[in-house]
Amino acid sequence: MNRRQWWAAAFLLAVGCDMSAAPFGLGTYLPNGPYDAEHQPGVKDRVSLVSFSGPGACADLERHLEDRAVLQMRVSLAESERYAFQTWAAARQAPSSTSPYQGGEADAGVAAAAGGGGGGSGSSGQPSAYTTTNTQVKGVDEPDFVKNDGTRIFVLSGQTLYATTSWPAAALARVSSLKIEGQPREMFLEGDRLVVFSEVYDASLGWPSWCSSRNYGDYCRRAYTNITKATFVDVADLANLRVTQTHIVPGSYQTARRVGSAVRLVVSAEFAFPPGVDTWLPYQDITSALSKRELAAQFEAMGTRNEAVIRNRSLSDWIWPIRSSAAGADVVQPLDCTKVGAPDVSSELGLASVVTLNLDEPSSISSTSLLARVDEVYASAGALYLAQRHWWWSSYPYPQPSATYLHKFDLSRPASVAWVGSGRVDGVPVDQFSMDEHDGFLRLATTVDSPSANGWSTHTSNFVTVLSEKSGALVTAGRSASIGDGERIKSARFIGTKGYVVTFRQTDPLFTFDLSDPAHPTQVGELQVPGYSSYIHPLDDNHLLTIGTADSAEGMGVQLAIYDVSDFARPRQAFQQLVGQTWGWSEAQWDHKAFNYFPERHLLAIPFFDWTYDGSWNSYVSDLRVFRVDSEAGFASLGSVDMRDVLVRQQSDFYACWGWWWLPMVRRSVMADDFVYAISSGGIRVANVANLAQPVATITFDYDSP
Fold first, then answer.
1. Which of 193-202, 216-225, 500-509, 595-604 has the lowest mean pLDDT?
2. DSSP labels for 400-462?
3. What is the rounded distance in angstroms from the CA atom of residue 610 to the CA atom of residue 128?
4. Is the pLDDT of residue 282 over 90?
5. Any long-range contacts for 471-476 (C-beta under 8 Å, 24+ apart)?
6. Which of 633, 620, 544, 630 is nearest to 581 (CA)?
7. What is d(CA 29, CA 198) in angstroms, rounded to the nearest whole number?
8. Which of 197, 439, 484, 495 could be cross-linked to 503 through a Cys-Cys bond (beta carbons 3.0 to 4.6 Å apart)?
């Protein structure tokens, strides 16, 4: 008897023939044990990867992948069956009532500092100082839809890459543009080399499990992307942008990092269930069942049919090859099954790939993958970490405390990455800034959700945990005491041996941590203030500059603050600045790339948006707010660069102007010497910081829709 037969026999022995003992009567299995909808998979303390090697590597990978696909299908089916039983019972009590579970609606089970130089007037051929993309780690560039080098600004708007000259400021001009396939997301610029990442949908590759139901098909075709395209562009001749290389990579774009010319692209493929797999019964089929046993039999039959379809697929149907093109020549890179690892923990079905590209050698490409879904990505100069949440099969019964698995990859080789080790931490990080590497240790700030005794609510606690690498594993070196019980982490920042964590429920506690001893991360100070900070930026050694949300009797609004942490045990809010009226917002509140601090001029620029409510869709405020920042004097508002006149389009149809591909609002900025550039989907406007209300130059981009 093989392992698969043994688990099936063990499960049948446990449940007997009682159809109520498990959703499907028969049940399925995990590679590591039986599937039981009533018992959630446990969190593992030690994590390793299942590797595939030898002549049977691809066959083993396919079998492992399909085992997990069957599990995910069964989990989704179990959720559907639970709702179907409720619907069936409700229909028996009130036959004429309309069920709230129509169609597929119940199929829910699958469910640093800116760059620049010194001072100067900037009146020569290039500015003496300018800002670039705000990044987390010095020397590790992050992608964005705006990139600049002091004299040129590149912007992705709609499906178009725009190339502009930006210096001198008065000579701001749109030089050329290039259409990019799909929906361009972000890009990197180094010298005269640029790479754009766009998302593309290929109907031949199908759609993911969450829209396998026939009720979701049309929506998925409109909204889902399953391919990431990397387009390399030579921008040496700004008037003649030239595509030199393209790569088509399976998976949706997640993020990327660049160190020098080496680019690490992270994509996440959500495996598509093949045609013929369905996980929901129509309402009429549910209500016409004569008994729960008959209804359960229908779901069991559906599961059996689904499994046959899933296992009839080949590996190439699940994982598609990388396709490259240059100078009219197409190359298909076969899948290397030995470069795919499967974490031996409970994870949603997916394929997270770290794809290595090189701006110096556009034709070079390699890929290393995890058979899992990942949620957050953090990278230092030498390592990349993928954070993967522990997957609960179902929201019922209530799951155990939340947990996250971490997978570390070595970036020392510019042409590829190598898995180093994996580990676990209690709780979930809120974003990439909740993770940081220092002297070989990974520090994390996480919020732990623990179920209450009644199973209908959770209690939260928050920790700073330090992980170290030992013999191919990431193990806990130390963990702080719990902070902010009942609250959630809203932001974190680790700077050297110091850490800062903000939690929130009704007030905003700022906690300071001493991390000099990795085995004993220790809370040192705490400050309680209203509202909360969602992004923390180092202003100098003793001060933090933050943006977040004010909480007042008038409502929620944008808040800037300066915190004095010179006395680490007694941090204090030195200055506060409210921006706009209540209920206005800034993209910088949740995207650090919209936060632009210019240390050479002590200037801060953030985009701001608000509605003016005069009865028109065009009644809004969209501008760039600029402040002088001083740790001793606080904030001084210098005014704003308004772009509303550029963004308001003279079209009667509101939806012709707005969309996820084209947002009529200021979203980014660039600062160079004494000039500030406001950047939006509609164009760029530049003004002198001494007179922001009087633009020096303005260029517009064409309205563009997919």
1. 216-225
2. -S-EEEEEEEE--STT--EEEEEEEEESB-SSGGGEEEETTEEEEEEEEEEE-TTSS-EEEEE
3. 34
4. no
5. 471/421, 472/48, 472/420, 472/421, 473/46, 473/47, 473/48, 473/421, 473/422, 473/423, 474/47, 474/406, 474/408, 474/421, 474/422, 474/423, 474/424, 474/442, 475/423, 476/423, 476/425
6. 620
7. 38
8. 484
Taking a C-beta distance cutoff of 8 angstroms, is the pair 430, 404 a contact?
A: no
The span from the CA of 157 to the CA of 542, in Å, is 39
pLDDT, mean over the chain = 84
Rounded CA separation 354/2 (Å): 34
The amino acid at 347: S
User: Among 31-45, 105-119, 334-348, 613-627, which stretch is predicted with the lowest mean pLDDT?
Assistant: 105-119
Number of other CB atoms surrounding residue 565 within 10 Å: 24
Check pLDDT > 50 for residue 119.
Answer: no
Q: What is the pLDDT of residue 225?
A: 65
504: how many CB neighbours lie within 10 A of its CB?
21
Which of the residue ranges 89-103, 436-450, 662-676 would you say has the lowest mean pLDDT? 89-103
Q: pLDDT tens across 472-510, in order?
A: 899 999 999 999 999 999 999 999 999 999 998 766 789
Question: What CA–CA distance (Å, rounded) separates 50 from 372?
Answer: 12
Compute the distance between CA of residue 339 and CA of residue 58 in angstroms, rounded to an integer. 11
Per mean pLDDT, which range of 120-134, 372-386, 401-415 is the poorest? 120-134
CA-to-CA distance for 289 and 89, rounded, in angstroms?
A: 11
| Cα–Cα distance measured from residue 582 to residue 555, given in angstroms and rounded to the nearest whole number | 6
Q: How many whole angstroms separate alpha carbon 384 and alpha carbon 420?
A: 10
* Strands 522-530, 532-540: pairing kind: unpaired
- Reading the block at residue 43, the tokens are 């969190």
DSSP letter, residue 662: B
DSSP state of 616: S
Domain definitions of the chain by residue range:
3-111+276-316
Closest CA to 63 of 50, 75, 79: 50
Which residue, among 665, 683, 658, 589, has the nearest Cα to 624 in the 3D structure? 665
Percentage of the chain exceeding pLDDT 90: 60
Q: What Rg do the C-alpha atoms of the chain give, in angstroms?
A: 27
Calpha distance 85→3 (Å, rounded) = 33
- With 0-12 / 13-18 / 19 or more C-beta atoms within 10 angstroms meaning exposed / middle / buried, residue 655 is exposed
d(CA 314, CA 66) in angstroms, rounded, equals 10
- Alpha carbon separation from 334 to 31, 367, 558, 586 (Å, rounded): 26, 11, 50, 44
β-sheet bridge partners, residue 421: 408
Backbone angles phi, psi at 537, to 5 degrees: -125, 130
